[in-house]
Amino acid sequence: MVGSKTVGRQILNLYLPLALFIVFLLFPFYWMSIVSFKPTNDLFELKFNPFWIQRFTLENYLYLFQNTDFPEWVKNTLIISVISTAISLLCSILIGYALARLRFPGSNFLGVGIFLAYLVPPTLLFLPLAQVIAKLNLYNTYWALILTYPTQLIPFASWLLMGYFRTIPKEIEECAMADGCTRMETLLKIILPLSTPGLISAGIFCFTLCWNEFLYALIFMSSGPMKTIPVGTVSDLIKADTLFWGSLMASAVLGSFPIAFLYSFFVKYYVSGLTAGAVKR
Amino acid sequence: MAKVILENVSKTFGNVEAVKSFNLTVEDKEFTILVGPSGCGKSTALRMIAGLEEPTNGVIYIGDRAVNDLPPKDRDIAMVFQEYALYPHMSVYKNMAFGLKLRRFSKDEIDQRVKWASEILGIQNLLDRKPRQLSGGQRQRVAVGRAIVRKPAVFLFDEPLSNLDAKLRVQMRAELSKLHDRLETTIIYVTHDQVEAMTMGTKIVVMKDGLIQQIGAPLEVYNHPVNMFVAGFIGSPVINFFPSRLVSKEGRLFIDAETFQLPIPQKKVSYYQSLTGSEAIFGIRPNDIYDRLYAPDRLRENFVRAVVDVIEPLGSEIHLNMTSGRHNFVAVVDAQTSVRVHQEIELALDLDKMHLFEKNDPNLRIKTDS
Q1: CA nearest B188: which of B25, B36, B64, B53?
Q2: For residue B115, what are the contacts with CB-CB under 8 A and spacing of at least 6?
Q3: How many CB atoms lie within 10 A of CB B343?
Q4: A10-29 burial string, b = 16+ CB within 10 Å, else e?
Q5: B77 to chain A: closest CA residue
Q6: Does the CB of B162 have a partner CB in chain A at under 8 Å?
Q7: In which order are the strands placed within the sheet that holds B31-35?
Q8: Helix H segments across B149-290?
Q9: Rg (CA), chain A
C-alpha cells in the first residue's frame, strides 16, 4: 500500500478496524452455530462459558430432521427460489435490454414506472396479491410464491441489467447486426455472454430474496409441510412459549448455507455487476 | 460488387437535420470517401447505407435493390468501426467466422476463408487470441478481416484508422488501398482526415453541415474546389485567403490586397473581368508560394514582401508563417532557404494556380475552366 510507512501503522489503520468489523459481522453466525451444537440444558446453565461449547452434540440437528418437515422445507424453498429466479431473470433480460437499447414511445416513462413499482413496499402489495391468489385458487401451492416473488424481483433486476447492458458498446451490437444477426440473436450471442457478471449479480439478488422471504411465504403458503425454511423454522420450532433454541439455530445454520456458498463464489461478479456503469471505463 | 445510389436522402434527429437531400452515386468497385469536419453528417450517411439508421426521406439502392426496408443483415454489406467493435468473448478466429456461421457456411468453407483473409492481413498467428490480447493495429486488422471474409457487395468503413497512432495509420492506409485493388469491391469510407481522403479515394465527397459541398476525384477537388470551405478543408497546410479587390490598371487586371498588387495571368482575365472593381477572396495554396530566389523564372517578376513570424523546418521543406500588412498566411518554401524570424523576405506567387471566391455566404469559386 502506498504511503504506509511502518507495519505498526498498517496494523493500526487497516487490520484493527477490519478485525473489529469481522467480529461484529460474524458474531451472530458464531452464536447461531455454537448454540446449534449445544445440548438444550447447557444453554441455560449459567456456570458454563456461554461463548464456548462445553459438551458437543448433534441432537438438535437430529431433532430437526426427525421431528420436523425440514427436508420438505428445503425442497420447497429450493424449487420456489430457482423457478422464481429463472422467470424473473428471463423477464428482466428482455425488459432491461429494451430499456437500454430500444427507443419507443413512452420508453422513458416505462423505465421510471418499473422503478416506482419496486418502491411499493411488499407489505402493502400483499393485500391485492392475496386476492389474486385467492381468485386463482393458488393458496398453499408453489405457484402462489413463484408468481408473487417476481413482483419484487423483476423491477430491481431489470434496472440492474439495464445498467449493465448500457456499458456494452453499441458498435459491437451494430457490427453483429451487419454480420447477420437479428436483434434477438444479437442479444443471445453477443450481449448475454458479455453480461455474465451482471446476470450473476441479478441472479444472486433474486435467489437471495426468494430464499429469505418471509411475509408472502407466511401468508400464501404455510399449512402442513408446504412451508419454506424461514416460515417452517419459526412456526414449527416455536410452540406457544416453548422455543427449541438448539433446533432453531440448527435450521438457521443449514438455511443460510446455500446463500453463503453462492456469495463466497460469486462476490467478485456481484460487486462488478452492481457498480457497472458507475464510472467510465 | 455493386453500385450504391442515394437518392434525395435526408435524416433528422429531433429538430436537427443531420443529412440534407443527399444525392450520391457510388459506382461499382469505386473507393468513395465521405470527408468533412465532425458533425457534418458523414457518419450518419454511412450508417443509413448500413441500415443502422433509418432515412427520414429518400431512397437508398445497393445493387438494383431499394434497401430502405431491409435490416443490415440482408443488405450484403460489411462494416468496420472506429472502435473496432470486436466481440470480446470470442477468439480472433471466431470473430472472423461469426458472420459466416450465421449464414450457414460449411465448416471447410469458413476455415478456408478465414485462412485466406488472415493471410492477406498477416494475422495468421493471432487466430487463437482474444481481442484484449491484441494491440490496436492488430485489432484493426481483425476488424477488417472480419469484414472481408464475408466477401460482401459493399464495404463500409467508419473512421477505421482514427484510433491508431500516426505511423500505423500511414501503414494501414497503404494496406487498405492495396486491399481495394486486390478485392475489387465497392468501398465507402468515412473520415475527417483530408490526407486519408486524398491518398486513398478514387472519389471524394466533401460534406459540411449535412450538405454535400463537392463530389470529385481527389485532384479535381484539390485543384478546383467549388467554394472556400472545400478549398480550406482539402490540402495541408491550409490554403491562404486574402480579402481583396479586383482593379483595372493600364489595361491589365490586378488583385489588390492593399499591401500588395499582383497582375492576373492573361488566360484568366476573361473569367474575372466582370468583377472589376468589386471585392472577392483571393486564395492561394502555400505550396504555390515560393521564396523569390528559388522560384521558377517566369514567377520572379511579381513578388510580395512579408515578415517571417514562425519558421517550421520539416527537413524536406520549410513552413513559414508570414505577415504582410493585415494578412497572415503560410508559405511552403525550399528546404535550403535561409531565413530568420522577423526578417522581411520576398515571395513569388504562382498566380496560374490562384483561386478567386465570391465574397458572399456560400463563397463560391469563380470558375476559370472545366
Answers
A1: B25
A2: B124
A3: 12
A4: eeeeeeeeeeeeeeeeeeee
A5: A178
A6: no
A7: B77-80, B154-158, B186-191, B31-35, B203-208, B211-216
A8: 166-183, 194-200, 218-223, 228-233, 266-272
A9: 23
Contacts of B72 in chain A (CB under 8 A): 174, 177-178
Q: How far apart are the first and last CA of chain B?
A: 31
Q: Where in chain B is the domain with CATH 2.40.50.140?
A: 240-358
Strand partners, B34: B190, B205
Tell the CATH topology of B240-358.
OB fold (Dihydrolipoamide Acetyltransferase, E2P) (2.40.50)
Per-residue CA distances from B143 to B44, B93, B152 (Å): 20, 11, 14
Element housing B58 (H / E) = strand B57-62
- Cβ-Cβ contacts under 8 Å, A180 against chain B: 73, 99, 102-103
Residue keyed to cell 490598371 = B249
Sorted by where each begins, the domain ranges of chain A are 7-57, 61-274
Tell me the CA distances in angstroms from A40 to A28, A30, A66, A120, B107, one per residue in order: 19, 17, 17, 42, 69
Please write the tens of the pLDDT for every residue from A172-222: 999 999 999 999 999 999 999 999 889 998 999 999 999 999 999 999 988
End-to-end CA distance of chain A: 23
Query: What residues 171-200 of chain A have any CB closer than 8 A to a CB of chain B?
Result: 171-172, 174-182, 185, 190, 193-194
> Grid coordinates representing B166?
500516426
pLDDT computed for residue B338 by the predictor = 87
d(CA B216, CA B220): 6
| Distance from C-alpha of A147 to C-alpha of A142, rounded to nearest angstrom | 9
CATH architecture of B4-233: 3-Layer(aba) Sandwich (3.40)
Give me the architecture of the A61-274 domain, per CATH: Orthogonal Bundle (1.10)
State which residue of chain B sits closest to A181, comparing Cα positions.
B73
Q: pLDDT means per 10 residues in chain B (370 residues)?
A: 91 92 94 94 95 94 93 93 90 95 94 94 93 90 93 93 88 91 93 93 95 95 94 93 92 90 89 88 94 87 91 94 93 90 93 90 74
Q: Tell the burial category of A3 from Cβ atoms under 10 Å away from its Cβ (0-12, 13-18, 19+).
A: exposed
The H or E element containing residue A147 is helix A142-148
Distance of CA A128 to CAs A81, A115, A149, Å?
22, 19, 14
Please, what is the Cα angle at B72 between B66 and B75, to 5 degrees? Answer: 45
Cα B304 to Cα B244: distance, rounded to the nearest angstrom: 14
Q: Fill in the DSSP letter of residue B133.
A: G
Which of B51, B82, B102 faces A181 most closely, judged by CB atoms? Answer: B102
